[in-house]
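**User:** Once you have settled down, spend some time on the protein underneath, comparing sequence with structure tokens, and judge whether sequence predicts the tokens.
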Amino acid sequence: MKKQRQFCLYCGGTTIKKHEDNVRRDFCPACNSYFYENPLPVVSTILESERRILLVKRDRAPSKGLWCLPTGFAEAGESIEEAALRELAEETGIKGKIIKLLDVDSYKSRFYGDLLFLTFIAEQSGGRLCAGDDCSQAKFWPVNKLPPLAFRSNKRALDAYIKSRRDYWAIFDSIENTVKKTPAPAIAKNSLTRRLVNVIIKNKEKIIEQWLEDVAVNPSTVEYHKVERAVLYNICDRILSHLTLWMGGVHDVGKIKNFYTKLGRERKKSGFKISEALSALSLIRKHIWTFALAQDSLQKNLDLYMTFELQRRMTVFFDLATFYLTRGHEEK
């Protein structure tokens, strides 16, 4: 239970209760001074890694033995963000970087009185995981297996965080599941797929040239108008190479992930909007499809089922490229 004030902070005299602005406050008659009880600022940090949340097990009251987010009081002389990162480092050994403020919640504690919980989202920038002085353990918990939490405000913030990430995780799972269901190389190499792959390989120079002409004047890719032609040529060449391997069933999702994540980071660093990067990617797809459909050997064999199958394979590839390009662009 929080202790009540009995004596004046300044003169040591006995305090009384007196109303000011319809609020009953502590008052010192000798000093003619009111004492204000403001909420104490408490900071918490959500740090996630591969759908696992970093929690600490409390080693002192209140709620000793229960798990919570890295949490503590802000100190005088530090910003609220500095307080959150300090508590994260003290309790878990991990150095972090604030991404954004997620939640603010008022809470009345029997132990401390009125509290104001501010919960931030952070990412790791260094350090090594180890429990601090106030904690007996520090570990990552899967989001679907979180233990009972010590503080209601922690649960509220985590519920909001998990809800905000659900669509992102669903998209990622959809892509991963589709990749896992992609036919093995022997199955993937049907006659029509081979024809399309051969068309791309034999006419790669023409496809790239058409794309270069389009991206250099298209109003949706203004920033690309300033990029050296050789740089753009190399990017398009790499993308076509990835696609032909993918269509032929010889795919490496790891390489696709690394290439497009890096490309997204580079486009962001160069000042490109994500909309322009995605538009340039979609134009590559357009010119591949347009060029392929112009070939008589494909048109004659392109029945409805085969059209859907080709579209599916290309869609999965470009969905992967779009996803990781965007992910790289979003990285801080």
User: Anything to note?
Assistant: Confidence is low (pLDDT under 50) at residues 183-190. The chain has three domains: 1-37, 40-175, 182-330. Residues 82 and 219 are 43 Å apart (CA to CA). The chain is about 50% helix and 20% strand.
